[in-house]
Write a structure and sequence with these properties.
226 residues, alpha/beta, Metallo-beta-lactamase, Chain A
Length: 226
């Protein structure tokens, strides 16, 4: 199983769906399980951290017209510019990520507290010289999008976790995420958590440090022997 798919993605798989959106994985068989999201709002569809794939515009169209692309992690530029330019919309960057605007070959707009015209508020998750990440939270249906700090891909999870803290953050987990109570949690790596998300998040944060040795041992074995 490759760590990361390459070339033009000709197929993709849904990794979560609800009334106001859907998630997809462009390369379903890659180890990284890079997931992206289409959020339906009163202002249109916002596409989050997209990995482009043939035919994915049909998914967007199910929920309306694309109003913008959102990047939530400084390393997740992915195909955001390509999707934004194809739909003639800007890439929205939380204030903490405004420094990557020049790296994107597309118009950008800085978001301070709220995605314009939506119920999705912006929350800073990690902000240091090496890692800048924000999350968004939809108050209308308690949907949270966190694209790197936590994930459901196999290499994020230890023991019986449904959701795990990123391996590089496990010793200092982003506790501020625990202040929110999502019904569903959309991640950047792996399938979305579509039920009991608050419980899964609390369990992941609470046991992050204690389960770290087991996760590291599992990942080392996987990368060496797979």
């Amino acid at each position: 199983m490759p760590m990361k798919g390459s070339g033009a993605a000709t197929g993709w798989a849904e990794s979560g769906r609800w009334d106001r959106g859907a998630s997809w994985i462009a390369y379903p068989h890659e180890r990284m399980q890079r997931a992206s999201h289409a959020l339906a709002t009163d202002a249109g569809v916002f596409v989050v951290d997209p990995v482009d794939a043939e035919g994915v515009d049909d998914l967007f169209a199910e929920f309306g017209e694309v109003a913008g692309v959102v990047v939530l992690l400084d390393r997740h530029k992915r195909d955001s510019a390509a999707v934004a330019n194809r739909h003639d919309v800007p890439v929205y960057l939380p204030e903490a990520l405004s420094g990557i605007a020049d790296d994107l070959n597309a118009p950008t707009e800085t978001v301070h507290r709220q995605l314009p015209g939506t119920d999705y508020g912006v929350h800073t998750v990690v902000e240091n010289p090496f890692w800048k990440e924000a999350a968004i939270y939809g108050d209308a249906d308690d949907t949270m999008v966190v694209t790197e700090a936590v994930g459901t891909a196999e290499y994020f999870r230890a023991g019986n976790e449904r959701l795990g803290v990123h391996p590089m953050l496990r010793l200092l987990p982003p506790k501020k995420l625990g202040r929110l109570d999502p019904d569903r949690l959309l991640v950047g790596h792996g399938e979305s958590v579509m039920d009991d998300a608050t419980e899964a998040l609390a369990y992941a944060l609470r046991g992050s440090r204690g389960r770290t040795p087991g996760l590291y041992a599992k990942n080392l074995k996987s990368f060496v022997f797979d």
